[in-house]
From TrEMBL:
Species name: Candida viswanathii
Entry protein name: Ubiquitin carboxyl-terminal hydrolase
UniProt similarity note: Belongs to the peptidase C12 family.
A GO term from the CC aspect: cytoplasm
EC number: 3.4.19.12
Domain UCH catalytic: 8-239
Entry keyword set: Hydrolase, Protease, Thiol protease, Ubl conjugation pathway
Gene it is expressed from: YUH1
Length: 242
């Protein structure tokens, strides 16, 4: 949570069932669902995932090293005002502890539109975030969407572990990796200054096999302090298995 956050929510648990149910509530068609990812390099474990994988969510521990890195990078990149909106949708996080919702929206708003239910909350959101809209304007729309979802009431306490209070500062953070319409791999994090272009994807069929993805997630693991080295979780969205 930052001083600019107008509201805080109970942080979501890294749980595929919770993220899938929230995605369906927003308007994702049931042909997709979230899956746990246990390795990005073990081919046997990767073989259990359905194909194709459209996007990946990483939960990682925040640290002083990371915060210094984030601030330095964002200072270099300057102010962002939705210049890449036609290639990839990105939202500034203004809801404290709401990174799980933003990570999910960064996936859902960048999926092919035939995977979105007509007249759903998500379809309406996509209609409302026009190309000429500012970052602050889209932030207000996301805040209104969260109020409509009632995130705390319907999803905040559904995890397998005891949920912290909405006002509690949490040192774990969700971000998304997804391909834009330009076939570049993007890192989408509402706490950054805008979408982060990681370069042209080298695997057009399945993001989970892209070495750019593995390299960036390994960067986060390598820069975690020893106490948090194992506090990572990865989920992927792909075809439903039922």
């Amino acid at each position: 949570m930052t001083k600019n956050d107008s509201k805080s929510v109970i942080p979501l648990e890294s749980n595929p069932a919770i993220f899938t149910d929230l995605a369906y509530n927003l308007g994702l068609t049931p042909v997709l669902e979230f899956h746990d990812v246990y390795s990005l390099t073990d081919q046997d474990l990767l073989g259990f995932l359905p194909s194709p994988i459209y996007a990946v969510i990483l939960l990682f521990p925040l640290s002083n090293n990371y915060e210094n890195y984030r601030k330095e990078q964002d200072t270099c990149n300057g102010k962002y005002n939705n210049e890449l909106n036609s290639q990839v949708k990105w939202f500034k996080q203004t809801i404290g502890n709401g990174c799980g919702l933003y990570a999910l929206l960064h996936i859902l708003t960048n999926l092919p539109k035939d995977l979105i239910v007509s007249n759903s909350k998500l379809a309406n959101l996509l209609e409302n975030i026009g190309s000429g809209m500012s970052v602050d304007e889209t932030s207000s729309i996301i805040e209104a969407l969260e109020s409509d979802i009632k995130l705390d009431e319907n999803f905040g306490e559904r995890g397998q572990t005891e949920a912290p209070a909405a006002s509690e500062s949490v040192d774990l953070h969700f971000i998304t990796f997804i391909k834009g319409k330009d076939n570049h791999l993007y890192e989408l994090d509402g706490r950054r200054n805008g979408p982060i272009d990681l370069g042209e994807s080298v695997d057009e069929s399945n993001i989970i096999k892209d070495p750019l993805l593995t390299e960036k997630i390994q960067f986060y693991i390598d820069n975690a302090d020893e106490a948090n080295r194992n506090n990572f979780a990865i989920m992927a969205i792909g075809p439903s298995t039922d």
